[in-house]
Design goal:
Cyclic_Pdiesterase, RNA_CPDase, EC 3.1.4.58, RNA 2',3'-cyclic phosphodiesterase, hydrolase, 189 residues, five-stranded antiparallel β-sheet
Length: 189
């Protein structure tokens, strides 16, 4: 069965940050029974989820518009900021690594979001909450507890910093691992 393709724009993570998050996963996975864990190559910060609605014309427009946006934003530094969840507190949908508040990240996301809506995409209207999805779907009857999460993973100060240097237009392939294929890379100035 062919799965529907989805597209999204996301901030790419440097290899060292993906490696650190994979180390966190190795510590967390034996203790936290989530149904699926994100492949290290698929770790990212979503800036705009375009869904499966993208036409060829819209994708071409995205590829034309995004370099201009990238030029208007210098690269910047981000910091990982602990772990958290989305969904019910006792059986969460998503386990994520947080990212500290960042005005440059917020400004970049806002400009990308606006450009995508101007191109006719219907995007999620919820407040932007920068995060890196690590796992999905709690799969046990036992209740989930966030108490120990941040004691398990305590990054050193220098490990938690990383540079945001480019964002990517990705295509999702649900039947592959890794799932996300980069279609276009947009370098920040």
């Amino acid at each position: 069965m062919e799965h529907q393709t989805h597209y999204f724009l996301a901030l790419a993570l440097p290899p060292e940050t993906k490696e650190l998050l994979f180390k966190w996963r190795e510590m967390l996975e034996p203790r936290l029974p989530f149904k699926s864990w994100v492949h290290p190559e698929d770790l990212h910060i979503t800036l705009a989820f375009l869904g499966g609605q993208a036409s060829f014309k819209q994708l071409t427009s995205i590829k034309k518009e995004m370099p201009e946006i990238a030029k208007q934003h210098p690269h910047f530094t981000l910091r990982l900021n602990g772990l958290g969840t989305f969904g019910k507190s006792d059986s969460p949908r998503i386990l994520w690594a947080g990212v500290e508040e960042s005005e440059p990240l917020r400004a970049l996301q806002k400009d990308i979001y606006q450009a995508c809506t101007d191109l006719g995409f219907s995007l999620d209207k919820r407040k932007f909450t920068p995060h890196i999805t690590m796992a999905r779907k709690w799969k046990t009857e036992n209740s989930f507890s966030t108490n120990d999460l941040n004691e398990i993973v305590q990054p050193k100060e220098d490990q938690s910093l990383f540079k945001a240097e480019h964002f990517v237009l990705y295509q999702t392939h649900l039947n592959r691992t890794p799932k996300y294929q980069p279609l276009s890379i947009f370098s920040l100035s």
